[in-house]
Amino acid sequence: MSPLIPPPNVLVVDPGKVDQKQLRKALPGMDLTFVPDAERAIAAATSREPAVVLMDYDLQTTDGFRLLMQLKVHPETMDVPVVLLTADPQRAQRPPSEGQPTTLVLAREDLGLLKEYVPQFEHEKTMMKAFREAYSRVLWGAGRAANELTRDERTVLESAGFPVDTKVVDPSPVAARAARYQHILSTSLTTQRAGKKLGVNASRVRQRLLAMPPELYGIRRGNEWLLPAFQFGTKGLVPNIQRVIARLSPDIDPVAVDGWFRRANIDLVHDGQSLSPLEWLSQGLQFEPVANLAEDI
After folding, report:
1. CATH number assigned to the domain comprising residue 133
2. Quick one: pLDDT band at residue 224, thresholds 50, 70, 90?
């Protein structure tokens, strides 16, 4: 590497779970920064502009989820990719392809591959920064045009979530959604893992994903599928969830679908308590009320 070009910085969160010697051996020529927790990671990420944030897979279910959300709030870090290390090779994803969300689950034994991904990550980060700058200019122009709207037109646009006044745009909802989507992807099952859980092969899983109506819920990424974890119980599928999935519109955002299944619903009351669709189905209650609600999402 040329001495005029600084080496890529890799920010490692919670080094107690990641062997520092292993990292230095697997990532020669990279500038490694170790921080003990998610809070210090934010400060380090905003000051050092890392090429990638590296943390243990298990961390992303607790402090790591908040870290993802906070990274998406800060303009300096919102496009920094996150790599989750796992000891289970079956959790690992295939190498990322251009245009896909830059959150990657990588097996510890394949850690050395990270140095091959960094240039791609840097390219995507540059492209996303250019896109955001262009979008900001469009949004600013839209804000100026909003001054010429009637009161009724402003009301309609604001009710639909369009920021007609750019001075009051709050990035937190966007950041929260982005972090939630990354969390869904990183905890989803591949067709191979889903097949093992269901006792079938990956080809049969894909057939169920493509059935009309579908029998499984999946997120398609190129030629691959990821199956969000909400539909799986400790043994196979959540009871009757395939009957509910069949009623979902294919146009619904995955974050909205995941949230709907997990959020308590006032129309699903059992023993005086409102249950989420997942809780309702897991308790073996009749699926029809949940399936009927799914049609109205």
Report:
1. 3.40.50.2300
2. confident
